[in-house]
Protein: Polyisoprenoid diphosphate/phosphate phosphohydrolase PLPP6
Organism: Terrapene triunguis
Amino acid sequence: MEPSSNPTPPCPTPWGRTGRSRRGPPIPHRRSGPLLVSMVTGGGRAESREAGRSGSRRPGEGRRAGAEENRAGRCPAAMPSPRSSPSRRAAPIPSPSRRAAPGPSPSCAAVALRSLLAADLRFSRQLGVCAGERSAWGSARPLLRLLEVSGHGVPWLAGTLYGLGRSESPAGREVLLNLLFALVLDLVLVAVVKGLVRRRRPTHNKMDMFVTISVDKYSFPSGHATRAAMVCRFVLHHLVLAIPLRVLVVLWAIIVGISRVMLGRHNVTDVAFGFIMGYMQYNVVKYFWLSPLSAPALFAVWNQ
Ligand SMILES: CC(C)=CCC/C(C)=C/COP(=O)(O)O
């Protein structure tokens, strides 16, 4: 706990304000854990700031936002040096009614993360040009929705199961069985992370997605991005393809990711993290590769 009389000056906030709340008593707040989670989930300052900018801030929110900035703004990097300006040195010790609310002050990393997320929300909104039929690029929406289906779990699972049923070569069956494992693993891991982080989808998203499960109301990470990255690596490793086709596979994965933001389904960070997560998921698949040697029982059943 930080002593409440500590006159540590505020760290400049990402919005160029010092964030010291001038009016009103400090407002009790959650501790830094939930505060960080609310930053990641988009439910904190970044969104209240957007609300303020669009003129929808409710009475009292300004003061609340100021208090939040106050908490977020202080960090050791902003400690006054002995050569600080006289006006800083002469700063009065806050009276009890103007003291900051007690509690741990977020680190500079938290302030940096918060400003990254604020920029993410702003940038993602700008890129959401196909979020609705009446958006700037609304006429391209049907095409992007087609791309959405191409990276969806249902066609990939259905296609893999169909291939497994039809495959007659043991090598083909092995690859397809591992692809099935990879797709299921991806669904489980994405559901776990979405359920833990619970970041809401962008407010401009129209929830008209093809087949979703309950956690798909959350946006972090993008399941399409994880799947696209993982499938891309899988295909490049296990299918013998001509160079133009390999390039096409990589382009498909990248475009699926970008289309998530353009459709307004995701913020940029959801997709960026999704790509990283999908890329790493392939390492897990490689590590636990199912083969007649590592999983003889499974293959014995299959070969009967
Ligand atoms: C129901 C099945 C089998 C998969 C759900 C696939 C899905 C809807 C993922 C969500 O993707 P984003 O997180 O990119 O929106």
User: Anything to note?
Assistant: The chain has a mean pLDDT of 76. The chain has two domains: 32-127, 138-303. The CA atoms of residues 82 and 89 lie 8 Å apart.
